[in-house]
Amino acid sequence: MKFYIKKLGCPKNDVDGDYLAGRLVQLGHELVADSEGAEAIIVNTCGFILPAKEESIAEILQFEEQKKRGRIKKLFVTGCLSQRYGEDLQRDIPGVDGFFGLGKIEALIERLDSNLTGGYLVRDPASELTYTSGDIRYVEESYPYAYLKIAEGCDRYCAYCAIPYIRGRYRSRPIREIIDEAQLLASRGKKELILVSQEGSGYGRDSKDGTDIIDLLKALEKVAGVEWIRLMYLHPEAVTKQLIDYLTGSAKVLGYFDIPLQHVSDKILKKMNRRVTRREIENLLEKIRQASAENIIRTTFITGFPGETERDFEELHEFMESFKFNRLGVFAYSPEEGTAAVKMGRRPSARMAAERQDILMSLQQGIAFEKNISLIDKIQKVIIDEIRQGAPAVGRSMGDCPEIDQQVYVKGEGLVVGDIVKARIVMAEGYDLIAEKAGG
Fold this sequence. Notes:
Blueprint: E1 2-7, H1 11-26, E2 30-31, E3 40-45, H2 50-68, E4 74-79, H3 80-92, E5 98-100, H4 105-113, E6 120-122, E7 145-149, E8 151-152, H5 163-167, E9 171-172, H6 175-187, E10 192-196, H7 213-221, E11 228-231, H8 241-249, E12 256-258, H9 266-272, H10 278-291, E13 296-303, H11 310-323, E14 327-332, H12 350-374, E15 379-386, E16 393-397, E17 408-411, E18 420-429, E19 432-437
Parallel strand pairs: 1-2, 1-3, 3-4, 4-5, 5-6, 7-10, 10-11, 12-13, 13-14, 17-19
Antiparallel strand pairs: 8-9, 15-16, 15-18, 16-17, 18-19
C-alpha cells in the first residue's frame, strides 16, 4: 500500500516517523513523497503547546475530509497528540481508522494491514512507556544531516511543560544502539548528526554504570564518515565545566551550546521550577564565552508566565540586550492542563505575552543583524545542504542548526551536497549570509 506520513512537531517526532516508515517499507509498503499519491495517510502529531495542537487537529480534519471524498482509503493518527488526548480524538473525529500512542509502531502496522475501519485506540500510560525506536529506520538521502535520538522523556517537571506526562520519565538509549544507528546514517551519506532528546546534557543520568553524555560523544566521534556532531537541548543546571571544555575542544562535536534558559528573573525561574538562579546562569554563560570566542550560544525565553510583572520582563529585556546571544527564540506562555503553572493564578494576558514576545524578538533581530555584519570578510566553515541550478548553494555554518537557525548561501564551482567547505562571507542579508567558496 502507498502511504504518506505527515510529520508535525519536533525532530524527535520526525525520528519516530522514520522508524515507522522504515518498518512499513521493510514489509513491502511504498512511501510516497506527498499525500496526493497515497492510499493511507499517517499523521504524526505534536501535542506540546496550543498552537502545535491546533495545527495537528487541522491536519487530521483536512485528511478526514479527503477520506470522506474517497481520495484516500485509510487514515491513522500517532504521536504526542494521540498519546495525550486519544479518547477525545476518538470521540470527536470518527473518520480516523486508528489512534496510536507513542511507540505503537507494530499496532499501527497491524491495523493498516487489516480490513478493519473505525476509531480504534491503543496506547500505554506515559509511566509505562519504554524507549521508542525501531529495528530499521527510513533514511532520506537528499540532505547531509540527520537527527539521532539519544533519550526519551523527562523527569525535571518544569512548571510549564507537559512532556513528562506525555513521554514519560527520562530514559537514556543504550550507547550500542545509538552507535549502530549512527553508522547506518553515515553509510547513507550523513556528514552531520544532530543529537536530540528532551535533555541532551542528561544522557546517562539514569544509568547504573556512570555513563554520561561525554562517553556517548567520544563513542560517536569514532564513527567513520561523520564530520559534525551537534548536541541539542542542554539544561543549564547540568552543563558542567567538563562538558563545556569537551564541546569547545572536540574535533567533531561542535561548540554549539543550545541551552533553553526560559527566563532570568529569580522569582520566575523558581516558579518555573528551573532550579537555577540568574547568577548561576551568568556564570555558566561566562564560562562558555571564556572557553572560546567561537562558541555559539542559542537559547529560548518564555514571556507571559504566571506572575511575570513588568519589572521581571524589563530584567529579561536588559539581560538580552547586555549579553547578546548568537541565536535566540521567544515563545509566549501557553497554559497546559496538568502542569503546575496552570494553578498559579493570575498571569499577563495573552495579548501582553505576545507583545512582550515581539519586543524581545525585535531586540534579537538587531543583535543578530549586527553579528552577521561583523562576519563580513571572515572565513567560515560551511556544510552544503542543497545545490540549486543557477543559484548559490544553500549551506550552514557550525553555528546554525537546520530549520531553526540562519543559512549561508555559497557561490562557487564544484560544490556538492555534504561538502564542508571554507567560505568567505561577502554580504549579510538580514538573518542570512552570502559567501564565496574560499581556497584551501
